[in-house]
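Q: I'm building a small set of examples for a reading group on sequence design. Run inverse folding on the following structure and report the sequence directly after it, with nothing in between.
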């Protein structure tokens, strides 16, 4: 009899644990990473991050609201009402920076080699952009809140050309022929 109780309890705990684990993963997929929203106060773009714990809790029964863990206007505006969260709650996919970027690249071609991007490989071969001065900038160096402006003024650069151009810049003596980029 005791064995049955222990077994039942154990299974129940395991299932609860599994359910919670899956919920954490699902909440990370839905609300994880950097988000781009319009600040209701300034009507300007800001980069924010949803607090992971509130994201997970929001997907459990009796859900509670989301909170932010980061905003590019913080710490100055730390006490704001976080009303931008409505935008994330309404369409988390559209706010996700990686989706915004993937959408932008999808139908474009590299400004150097003219190869179309299609689906981007964000995990390893991150593309970059070229600014009006002809300098290549990587996304890691671009503040999230400037993203809408960057997408309007910069040209897309594929990962291969990013590597090739960086190499040319660092070793101008080694590159004598006209640049040809292969994929
Ligand atoms: Zn290219």
């Amino acid at each position: 009899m005791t064995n049955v109780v222990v077994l039942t309890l154990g299974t129940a705990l395991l299932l609860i644990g599994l359910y919670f684990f899956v919920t954490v993963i699902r909440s990370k997929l839905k609300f994880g990473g950097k988000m781009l929203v319009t600040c209701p106060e300034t009507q300007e773009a800001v980069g924010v991050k949803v607090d992971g714990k509130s994201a997970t809790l929001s997907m459990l029964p009796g859900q509670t609201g989301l909170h932010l863990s980061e905003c590019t206007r913080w710490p100055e505006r730390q006490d704001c009402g976080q009303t931008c969260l409505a935008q994330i709650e309404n369409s988390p996919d559209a706010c996700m920076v990686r989706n915004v970027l993937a959408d932008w690249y999808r139908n474009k071609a590299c400004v150097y080699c003219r190869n179309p991007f299609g689906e981007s490989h964000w995990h390893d071969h991150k593309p970059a952009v070229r600014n009006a001065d002809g300098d290549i900038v990587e996304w890691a160096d671009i503040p999230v809140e400037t993203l809408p402006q960057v997408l309007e003024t910069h040209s897309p650069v594929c990962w291969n050309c990013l590597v090739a151009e960086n190499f040319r810049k660092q070793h101008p003596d080694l590159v004598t022929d006209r640049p040809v980029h292969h994929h």
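The chain has two domains: 1-95, 97-183.
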